[in-house]
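tool_call: predict_structure(chain=1)
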Amino acid sequence: MKNLLVMGIIITLSPSICAMQSSAEKSSTITQVPILPQACGLIDASQNNKENYHIRPLREKDIPQIKDVILVVRSEFGFGQVGQAHKSSHWSKKEFQGMYKKYSSPKSAYFVVVHKETSKIVGGAGFGLLKGVEDTVEIKGMYLAQKARGLGIGKLLLDILIEKAQQEGYKTAYLETHHSLERANKLYATYGFKLLDQPLGTGPHTSTRWYTMELNK
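tool_result:
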């Protein structure tokens, strides 16, 4: 096992699942993700290379791809139709247009999960200051394509977001989700988030479950 310091994030990598990368790849890669390639329907199941995915910071040119992932996932769970944001969601056309600038601002970040061979984005998640609550980071925009779930990607994204948020000086983490998203709720509870009776911040609040967790340095 070894530790890598990438963009201020310390990540432990196992030699058995992490291949050596070129210097060009390392400059934009957070870590290798041990995922079965066929999980996202991108390559033949016979090509069972667990190192076909990596997580890296959002780039401006990624917006169309992550937009497609977000809208498809929201449609899947009844939060809007493919091709348009749900009327009760903050994921409007304007939001997508300003997404890169928003997550490039101080104390904010967004990371995407990418298939290395095809450059296909299959998910992502980000964070930023929770409006109206001092020293609290809001984890948001976590979406994964259907076949990329149940493989530990969500937890890996949380690991990266929480570590980075701690380094930005945040003391508490907060996130919102919907009660119908059973897998997401289970992940957050298992990770250590505590369920709240009501939302925090100034909103708008369109979710039905609210979680918080203290960040220990």
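agent: The chain is about 25% helix and 25% strand. Proceeding to next step.
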